[in-house]
């Protein structure tokens, strides 16, 4: 069933995770510019969250900011219940994420756990908590930021790729479950590397530049409004999926490693500074 597109989020209540900086803040700015009735922003960094809230209020937004650690299910449920009680949520943007770019053997148990908690489990917990009331004003949206890493195996990204594959599978399965629900649409976005600092040091690939966050947010936002089920960015991701599907495994490994450069794109990864990496959990 086709979903009725939204022209904007004017008059709606929007919740965005990881909203103190980067794409989360860009999503929040867009919601404010479109006249959202209320923008609820979550992050783990108090100082940056406060600064983001002030910036959004200067844009005319009605903003509520909460320090939430998405690795803690109890906090997710507590603040989700608070968001529902104080007006409800119509649009959920599962944006927050963490990445550890190293070989699996070098991962610490805590890194594995945190990555899966923030990238995979938190969107499930939060969506589950908000879903019963999501379409009560007749317009409900869930936008989940997954990753192209969910679709293509890549050295030094094993846990991150697994977490985003889980997010993708969850989000698109939920979409199918809600196919007959006229009020709620679910969209999943799978971009390649984005120049937010989260993937600092990652290398661009053949015909696949590092994406600008503004372009990703714009495309994701339009997909959310339209109820578009899945977006792969850029177009080369679709080509990669086609080649991966038709080529024998040895041939695909050669193309991905030697031609496109996927398998070496994380060779020089550095990522955010320790403080910034922590911020992006929110």
TrEMBL record:
Against SMART domains, the record matches this protein to:
PKS_KR
Pinpoint the Ketoreductase domain residues.
12-187
- Superkingdom per UniProt: Bacteria
Q: Does the keyword Aminoacyl-tRNA synthetase apply?
A: no
Q: Which UniProt keywords apply?
A: Oxidoreductase
Q: Name one Pfam family in it.
A: adh_short
- Note the PROSITE patterns from the entry: ADH_SHORT
The entry assigns this protein to a family as follows: Belongs to the short-chain dehydrogenases/reductases (SDR) family.
According to UniProt, the name of this protein is Ketoreductase domain-containing protein
Species of origin reads Glutamicibacter nicotianae
